[in-house]
Structure formats: structure tokens, C-alpha cells
């Protein structure tokens, strides 16, 4: 492949080229094109379109993920299941999503990313549609299809942030990541809203799962025909430092020694634990509180009151936007005073969310209004972490290892976080319940959810520890120079061959 040959869209799916071409290629590309391109090989307008499409898909991902939570009381009534089995719906999804993330991280660092995402989203859309036809006698089929949905989502969430990182740097990258992570709370909130309202309108919760598949296929079309694959690391690469693709084992070893990456990942695990628990159980908890106090009637004929899912969805949307924006703005202002601003803001968000979440859970039976106010404040502080954690990963990890780092962070945060937290909360709730009265249906879930406040404090401690290493690790990533004994991946007859750098003639 000559230096003047473009590699962004012409790169085949099964290609080992890193696409991290240097400034010479950039010069030729800009000289020949009618529209000026950056070093990434993507024009400014195409870059903005790409980020917009990625945000749209991210919104769909989270909208689909929390549609089930929005109709959970209906699902429990339809299948006649307890809290333990209800928690499994989220756990099987997160487990498949988590365990496949390393595979897509490996592929995302080596092959054309938009094609990987397109295949994954198509699969996710079809499986989601299939899950909406689950009959009453086969709850296991719903578990299976929800698990398979995680396959498609893993192909996207692992890779998408690395494309943004290859399009923008510094403050612009932070702004674009902020826009990208708006989709998490907004999509989650829309999942509750759309799920509950579609179910209510159709008088059948199955229809709630038939909204996102069609929107997902539109996303695939946009990916294939609008998004352009940027060159990896080219926008950051310096003339004297051409980035090289190293072996997967080398990548893992380097990431395990990156203290900021490891500690911030554990901090983010606490965020995942709390958000995973609240995402699945909060609407059901609020519904049970209202039934216990006599404000609402129990589920009748398989249909449950949907107002709690609607309100919680609106709160999730608003608090997510406020949290992400405030987190980024506070961090940006503090950066002029301390280079440790990012992990300190993340720590403050978690530590401040803990008491408000505790008060929201405790006040549920006394005052519905107070409960919603405390949930609003707790979720706002919790949402301050989303964009900042992603930014931390991108600037403490070199470009050729970012998809692997994203995958590893997904595995750890979900394995110890929201993969087990919904199921754990359900198990604790069932074990604490003394009988099936409305009192104990509410009280057992209330006591089990108190665990979220404790986990928030632990997560805050991990981010405080991250602040001790953030300056050193950022400098190492920015000034990274491959060593001669570091194995690289060299294409040979269409397959990867690992050889030492010293044996390659440059």
C-alpha cells in the first residue's frame, strides 16, 4: 500500500492495517480533495455527521436496554416470576455484553470499525424484535434473547468512543464526548417512557420491544453510507512517533500497569453497580411503595400502572443532561487550577450522590414528592461521571490500545457492577421478604436497595486514588515512544505475524 493511497473507507473489513498514517499522506489527501480533510482523513462536516450518528445509535442502545425496566411489573405479572428471576433479565444481557467486549475490542483495534458496528447493530435489532414474541410459557426464551441483544451492543459500545477519539483532540474531543454521553441518560429515560407508554397504549408489553428494531436498521444504513472510518491516531501522531500496532498480550500488560486506567475503571464499576440497580428496580420500587401506601392499586389483568416508569424516565433524561453538562463544566473550570480535576470531580459526584440516594429510598413510604426530589439530586451527581471517565481513558491510553482499553473497562465495570447488581438486589429482596404481603414486597426491596449508597462511597474512594496518578499517566501516554523490544503486528499473507521491532527493516 503506497503512502498516497487512502485507507479510511477503502480499508477492507479483514485488514490488519492500523490506519495511523503520517503527515505525508495527510498532505496529499488535502491537496487532491475538494473539501479539506484533517489528519484523520475525515472532513469537518463528515466528522460532525459521524458523531451525530454515533450519538443516535448510542441513544438507541440505552433506550432498548431500559425498555424492559419500564415494563418490569407487567413482565413479572405476565410470567408470574419473583424478584430473583426479574433481576436475571438485566444480568444475562450485561453478561453477554461484558464477555464479548474483549473480542470486539480486539477487532476494533485491528479492522474496519464501521463494518463491525453495522453487523452488530443488525443482529441486535433482529434479536430484540424476536424477543417481543415470547409466549407466557417460555420465560427462558426471553432470557435467551435478552442475552443475545448484548452481543450487538458490545460491538458498538466498545468501538464508538475510539472513532470520536480519532476525529478530535483536547477540548473539542471533550465536547464531542459530552454530546455522545448525553445519549446514555436520555436514551435510558426514553426507554422507560417509550416502554411504559407503548405498553399502556397497546395494552400489551410485547409492543414496547418492537420500537427500537426499526430505528436500529436505520442506524445501520447511516453507518454504511454516511460514516467514514478515520485513521487511527493520525490526528495525534507526531512526525517522530509513528504509532505501531502491538500484540494483544502486550496491550493488556501495558494497561494493567496504567494506574489511572485501573483505578478509574474500578471507580466506574461503582457507577455501573448503582445505575444498574436503580435502572431495573427504581420504577418497580416506586410502584410497590405506592401500592403499599394505598396510592395505587396492584396489577390487574397483567397491566400495571405506568406513571412511575414515565416519571422516572423523565427524571433520568433531565438529570442525565444536567449531570453530564455540569460534570464537564466543573471539570473544565478546575483544570486551570489543578491537572487532577477530572478524577476529583468524579469522586465528588459519587460521594454527593450517596446521601441523596439513601434519603430517596428511606422517604419512599412517607412522601412521594420528597422521594422524587432526592432521586433527582442523586442521579444528577451520579451522572457527572459519564463523559469524564471516557475522557480519562482516552488521554491516559495510547490510540492503538483504546478499543482494547474500552473493552477491558467494560468487562471489569460490568462484571463487578451492573452484571450482578440487579440480580443481587433481587436475591437480597427475596431473602428478606417474610411473606407476600404488600408491606414485605415493598420493605424487602427497600432494604436491599440501600446497598447502592454504600457502593457509591467506595467508588468515590477509587476516584480519589486515581487523582494521585493521573498526571504521570497522561504524560506517559502523550509522550509514548515504542521500544525496540516491543512486539508489533505485521501483515503477512493476510494474517498477523508477531515479530520484534528490531527485526523489521524500516
Automatic annotation (TrEMBL):
GO molecular function: transmembrane transporter activity
InterPro entries for the chain: MFS, MFS_dom, MFS_spinster-like, MFS_trans_sf
Main location, first listed in the record: membrane
Subcellular location: Lysosome membrane
Region annotation (Disordered) ranges: 1-39
Domain Major facilitator superfamily (MFS) profile: 50-471
The reaction(s) this protein catalyses: a 1-O-(1Z-alkenyl)-sn-glycero-3-phosphocholine(out) + H(+)(out) = a 1-O-(1Z-alkenyl)-sn-glycero-3-phosphocholine(in) + H(+)(in); a 1-O-(1Z-alkenyl)-sn-glycero-3-phosphoethanolamine(out) + H(+)(out) = a 1-O-(1Z-alkenyl)-sn-glycero-3-phosphoethanolamine(in) + H(+)(in); a 1-acyl-sn-glycero-3-phosphoethanolamine(out) + H(+)(out) = a 1-acyl-sn-glycero-3-phosphoethanolamine(in) + H(+)(in); a 1-acyl-sn-glycero-3-phosphocholine(out) + H(+)(out) = a 1-acyl-sn-glycero-3-phosphocholine(in) + H(+)(in)
Superkingdom assignment: Eukaryota
A Pfam family assignment: MFS_1
Composition-biased stretches (Low complexity): 1-15
Membrane topology qualifier: Multi-pass membrane protein
Example of a GO cellular component annotation carried by this entry: lysosomal membrane
GO biological process, one term: lipid transport
Coiled coil spans: none
Transmembrane feature ranges: 87-108, 115-133, 139-164, 176-195, 207-227, 261-282, 310-331, 343-363, 369-398, 410-428, 448-470
Keywords, ordered alphabetically: Lipid transport, Lysosome, Membrane, Transmembrane, Transmembrane helix, Transport
Family as reported in the entry's similarity comment: Belongs to the major facilitator superfamily. Spinster (TC 2.A.1.49) family.
Protein name according to UniProt: Protein spinster homolog 1
Source species: Anabas testudineus (Climbing perch)
Gene: SPNS1
